[in-house]
Batch of 4 targets.
Target 1
Amino acid sequence: MQIAKKMKIDEAKEYVAEKLGVTVEELHDVVIMTEKRTEMGLGLAHVEPCAEENNGMAAKFKIAEALGIRINSVEKFKVRSGLKTQKEEDEDIRRMMEEAAAENEE
């Protein structure tokens, strides 16, 4: 969130906590976050890579959606799998750059 949304660390934690429906303190609680990540299908970093709970790319899709951010590997996957055309991806990137430029002007 610090990079994607240009937020300071405390602001980023608050944003993520709000999006996930937890408190900032709960973000640091392994038990609560394991339950939340499992409930939301966000994958678990502390389980075996091939375990059912660790669903790789599907988890990245859900994280991007839950946090309202763009994850480069998800966007590349969409293009390579035909879920999105390269033209659509190029337009998305152009739009993001224009938005960033407009924010910098303010």
Note: Residues 45 and 54 are 7 Å apart (CA to CA).
Target 2
Amino acid sequence: MNEQGGYTLVELIVAIAIFGILVSMVSNFVITYQQSLNSVQNRIIANNLARLKLEKFRSNGLENKNKGRKQFQQEEFLDYSYSIEKIKKRAGLKAIRLRVYYLEDEIFNLVTLI
């Protein structure tokens, strides 16, 4: 502060620079937190969709008529798709692998024995 009770230009520039650094750090934290939250939310939705699809698959007698990737039909889950495949294990065991995708990325992989 100078004798007249005001701040110099250099003091203001330093204060603005420090404030800018703090704001950028906080905004980076908020963005990272939001991305993590979205990722966890997508995984939870994928987990629940996989469990529901597996139960439907089992109730249909383990018939998988369509090969490849299929889209979920519910309107709120149109960005999600899935694929089901039967895997033969040794000693007569079989397994089902159900993969759930969000947009183009695989975000959940469920394997269960039957």
Note: Residues 9-113 form one domain.
Target 3
Amino acid sequence: MAEVGINYFWEMFKMFLALGAVVALLVLLGKYLPRWLRSSKYFPPREQFFQITQRVNLGSRKQLVLVENDDTKLLLGVTDNKISLLKDMSDSQPGITEMPKDVLLKEDRE
């Protein structure tokens, strides 16, 4: 009868040891896998696709954002529900580097 208790204890010990090993493996993967994916040649950093040059907060959850991608510059209006293209600035002024002062959202003009 004592052997049954010892055998049960040994099986529980092995089960918790295996569970601890799985949890430790998940923690290590969670810590090092994102670093490996970012440094991988198959997943280039996000900055290579587009870059946010300037951002202006207009109030709670409203922004004007100037986005660049190679030679394309876009002025976007960003809210919680929607992203709107306000102006394609790559054609009109090739040397522009800052947010234009005369561009406002419709809600701000009222």
Note: Residues 46-101 form one domain.
Target 4
Amino acid sequence: MEIVTIILFAIAFTVVLANATVTYIVLKSTWIERPQKIFQCIFIWVLPAMGAGVAYAISREPKTNASGTYPTELSLGEDPYVGNDNGARDYFLGSDHGE
């Protein structure tokens, strides 16, 4: 066998392995609905390298679940010009408006 043939087989094997892996990830995902899973699997195999990359990026599950609530107090640091109580403070002049 020529070296070019071996390299082409290695590339083809890598692409098929990547597609199979991403297909498995998409099908096992719990937060994607069935029609979207079917579309992504078709997309993976129609556009092998790019399809697998895009489908993997889309189908990754979030690492943390958001609580869905906002904190009661915003902590904006020690900046005297930023905050809930400093809405009338002039950033450039360093004084309150209306003084």
Note: The mean pLDDT is 77.
